[in-house]
Every structure is written in C-alpha cells, then in structure tokens.
Amino acid sequence: MEKWSPTSKQFTQWDTDGYFIARDVVSTETATELRGVIKNVLLEPEPSGHPDSDPMDPMGDTPDARAARFRKLGNFCVDAPLIWHTVHCGEPILAMARHYLGDDLVLKYNSVFVKPARTGSATP
To answer: In the chain, what are the domain boundaries?
Structure first.
C-alpha cells in the first residue's frame, strides 16, 4: 500500500488555517452508517431521565429535541465498533496519524461533537 502524504493544498491549508480537509477518506455509505450510530445514541433518553439543564437550550427531552440538541459524546468511539474500526483504526486515518505522529500511537481520548449548523456558540 502506498504511504499517505498530504497534498500541496493540504500543506498550505495546514500552514494558514491550522487544519486541512482530507476528502473521500470515508465513503458516503459508511458516513451514513456512522451518522445512524451516533443518532441512535442521541435519541436515547437522558440517563437521569431529565434533559440537560443548559438554560440556553430549553428544548426538552422528546426524541426530536434530543436529536436537535448539541452533544459531546466523550470516549464514545471506543464503545461504537463501527466508528472505532472504520474511522479510528481504518487505514486512511491511521496513515494520516502515522505521517504526523509516527508508528507508536496511543489513543487517550476521543469525542464526537454533534452540533447543528447555526445552533449555539462556535465550536473551536
């Protein structure tokens, strides 16, 4: 397999913006499956039986409200095999990580941010 390296456009974006976009790393079909896995978790009731107590987000605890509400799912990917094996341990992502970090990799934390466009404050 050919070793991954960033394109000149990605290098430029990294230098100017601090990030780059790698397109077509995950297929459309896989992205749809990943979205379904995440959405299923968002539709589950709050563990406490009460919606988040964020006064800026009084959406309630209906399935539609839970799906619309901003969420950060910490260490979620470890418990979601499709996401873990397809994204974090998938060869395209590992090739990028190895390019920047070398072969000795340890994932200490991961998270999924789910935030509808134009909702809430900016996410850095």
So the answer is: 8-114
